[in-house]
Amino acid sequence: MHLVLKVIPKKWLITLALIVMGLFSFLLLGVMSIFIAAMGGESGTDAGDITYTGEGQVMNVSPEVLKWEPTIRKHAKAFGVEPFVALMLAQMMQESGGRGSDPMQSSEGAFNTKYCKSPNCITDPDYSIWAGVQEFKHAIERAGVTSPGDMDHIKTALQAYNFGTGFFDFVGANGGKYTKELAIKFSQQQYQKVKHTGMYHCLRPEAVPYQACYGDILYVDAVLKYYQPGSVVSGGGGNPRSGGSSDSKVADVGRQWIGRSTYVFGGGRNTNDIARGIFDCSSFVRWAFEQVGMYTSPIGAVSTETLNKIGTKVSANDMKPGDVIFFDTYKHDGHVGIVIDKNTFIGCQTNKGVSIEDLNNPYWKKVFSGHVRRF
């Protein structure tokens, strides 16, 4: 080392030292910037900047439809319409009941470029759903749908999915809002144009008196009988309110599953599980909040780690009905439930399924560290 110092001029050593110090400072600033950005991202989750869109619920659909939920979700996620999975399941129920190789009835649609354009030409169900999801996306974008709870625009989108894109222009020229009367009038006009071909006939007896035999004039009602709308809410943040975000409603909604549900770790992350009352603790909480119009997490990605970053932390002494309570069971925040009152909470328990628990029970007192959040 002494030999090196003698060989290299002193001014070069000083210059080299300054360069090394500069590089170190640059790297340090970079690391600090990344750290600050990461912290900002975490605080952004709590700050209420994000608007979440409630996914809605599918109702009374067949097992043949429910089995396609993962495939619909896969393509919906790819095309940016995942919050509408329940609505697409309802639509599939009307289109095909989930049966056949073209469950979304996409053969005649614009996005089918692989098979012929006649009904049921598609022989690959995955391709049918891939094309149908894109058709659906185009319809809701053209209709101006803002959320799964935007029913006025959803009705226009659904009817246009059935009639074709010409219905958008027709609605725009006739008040800009879907009505059943407009659907009948459009069908009448289009039927007169194609009646001579002999290819069209009334799908429903109700359409015969109107001679509205182009498409299905009752398509909107037929789809929506399987669908419970979602809604838009702000996620987290703000000052704590006088009560939990949904007060007793979110605490009460899950009572229907007491005695008729099953705890499965990782369960409750698809509509098939939910229909059978299969949950774990976090998926039950997500489901309960969705029932009262609050979307907390994607159905397939909820966990205690996603829930423990939402809303505002409140003192255990101030907890109210509808607040979310965490327990340090097998890990920190390993279990979660919904506060009913200062002495009880409801949640999906490992050995019971959904049940109401006493916070004064020695076990719960032992694992409760005081973490309560208000969504």
Automatic annotation (TrEMBL):
Q: Which SUPFAM superfamilies match?
A: Cysteine proteinases (SSF54001), Lysozyme-like (SSF53955)
Tell me the GO BP annotations in alphabetical order.
proteolysis
The record's keywords, sorted A to Z, are: Hydrolase, Membrane, Protease, Thiol protease, Transmembrane, Transmembrane helix
One MF term in the entry's GO annotations: cysteine-type peptidase activity
Q: Which residues form the NlpC/P60 domain?
A: 244-375
What Gene3D superfamilies has UniProt attached to this entry? 1.10.530.10, endopeptidase domain like (from Nostoc punctiforme)
Q: Name one Pfam family in it.
A: NLPC_P60
| InterPro entries linked to this entry | CwlT-like_lysozyme (IPR047194), Lysozyme-like_dom_sf (IPR023346), NLP_P60_dom (IPR000064), Papain-like_cys_pep_sf (IPR038765), Peptidase_C40 (IPR051202)
Membrane-spanning segments: 12-36
- What family classification does the UniProt entry report for this protein? Belongs to the peptidase C40 family.
Q: What is this protein called?
A: Bifunctional lytic transglycosylase/NlpC/P60 family protein
Native organism is Bacillus wiedmannii
